[in-house]
Amino acid sequence: MRIVPVATSAAVLCLLSQVILAEPVLTFQGVGSVRLGMTAVAAEQALGSRLKKVDDISGHGSGDDEKSCWIGRRADGVEPELFYLFEQGKLTRIDVDPSSKSPVSPIKTPRAIGINSTASEIRRVYADRATVVPTDDPGDGRLVWMRLNSSPEGRGITFALYAGKVAAFWTALYPAINYYEGCL
Questions:
Q1: What does DSSP say about strands 155-162 and 165-173: parallel, antiparallel, or unpaired?
Q2: Is the pLDDT confidence value at 124 over 80?
Q3: What's the rounded Cα separation, in Å, for the pair 109 and 30?
Q4: Cα separation of 35 and 55, whole Å?
Q5: Which of 42-45's residues contact partners 24+ apart within 8 Å by CB, and which partners?
Q6: Of the candidates 170, 165, 8, the residue with the CA atom closest to the CA atom of residue 93
């Protein structure tokens, strides 16, 4: 009779460890506990880490003021493939963009689409919700953007496919979802 509670407790602990150790998921709202629309201070609290500027596009102020536009990543080096774009003091876009040092990322959408997923996989799991959108790609034309819109929330998820595979993807508010690079 005592084995049942022990077995039940072990099963619960196993499930909890899977939830706790799971990688963050990119959704229309954000990634993990970080949500679009947060201030930098709120995002840092959610991350449990300071953000380090990697690009101060506007050249204005501290980064949390209403005139600034900047991109940051975690100062502790965790999840180096995640980039956070702030405009006018609010988080408007979160990019998953692996570098050559870490060419893959465990971060995926709720339907398991992530780096190296194919266009056909996106179409299969998102059906008619995934649409091809024009890009300002100055390159060789092999870059394609596929987008999922979350109407009427004014946000979406974009997959940047290069040679048919996801090379980067992001969740964003409009108009930041359309930026080819940084703020406009």
A1: antiparallel
A2: yes
A3: 10
A4: 20
A5: 43/84, 43/91
A6: 170
**What does the alpha-carbon distance between residue 95 and residue 170 come to, in Å, rounded to a whole number?**
4
Which of 86, 85, 84 lies closest to 66 in space, CA to CA?
Answer: 86
pLDDT 10s digits, 4-40: 444 444 344 334 333 444 789 999 999 999 999 999 9
- Give the CA count within 13 Å in the CB-facing half-sphere of 168: 16
- DSSP E strands, the chain: 30-31, 34-35, 51-56, 69-74, 82-87, 90-96, 130-133, 143-150, 155-162, 165-173
Strand, helix or coil for residue 121: helix
Q: How confident is the prediction for the chain on average, in pLDDT? A: 82
CATH fold group of domain 23-178: protein yfey like fold (2.60.460)
Alpha-carbon distance of 22 to 33, in angstroms, equals 13
Question: Could you report the per-residue pLDDT of 62-103, keeping only the tens digit for each?
Answer: 445 555 899 999 999 999 999 999 999 999 999 999 976 677
Three-state DSSP state, 166 = strand
The dihedral built from the CA positions of residue 159, 161, 165 and 166, taken in this order, carries a sign that is negative
Q: What percent of the chain has pLDDT over 70?
A: 76
Residue 55 structure tokens:
């690009």
